[in-house]
Amino acid sequence: MRQIVLLLLFITVACTAQTGQTALTRLRCEYRENPLGIDATVPRLSWEITSNKRNVMQQAYQIMVASSLESLKADKADLWNSGKVSSDQSLGVTYAGKPLETGNACFWKVKVWTSDGKESAWSEPGSWTMGLLQPSDWQAVWIGLDSAFAGDRPTDTFTRLSARYLRKDFRLPKKVKKATAYISGVGLYELYLNGSKTGKDVLAPGPTEYNKRTFYNTYDVTSQLQQGDNAIGAILGNGRYFSMRGNGSGLPPVTNFGYPKMICQLNVVYEDGSTDRIVTDNSWKVTAAGPVGANNEYDGEEYDATKEMPGWSKPGFNAASWLPVQLVSKPGELLVAQMNNNIRVMDTVKALQVKEIKPGVFIYDMGQNFVGWVRLKVKGASGTQVALRFAERLNDDGSLYMANLRSAKVTDKYTLSGKDTEEWEPRFTYHGFRYVEVTGYPGKPDLSAIEGRVVYDDMATTGHFETSNEVINQIYKNAYWGIRGNYRGMPTDCPQRDERMGWLGDRAVGARGESFIFDNHLLYAKWLQDIEDAQTPAGSVPDVAPTYWRMYSDNMTWPAAYLIIANLLYEQYGDDQPIRKHYASMKKWMAYMKDKYMKEYILTKDTYGDWCMPPESPELIHSKDPARKTAGDFLGTAFYYHLLTLMERFATITGNTADVASFKALGENVKMAFNKKFLNQEGGYYANNTPTANIFSLAYQLAPEDKQKQVFQHIADKTLNDYKGHISTGLVGAEWLMRTLTNYGRGDIAYQLATNTTYPSWGYMAKEGATTIWELWNGNTADPAMNSGNHVMLLGDLVVWYYQHLGAIQPDPDAPGFKKIIMKPLIAGDLKKADASYHSGYGMIRSNWEKTDKSFKWRISVPVNTHATVYVPAKDNKNIKEGGKPLADNKDVKFLRMEDGYAVYEIPSGDYEILQDN
Question: What is residue 57's predicted lDDT score, i.e. its pLDDT?
Answer without folding.
Answer: 95
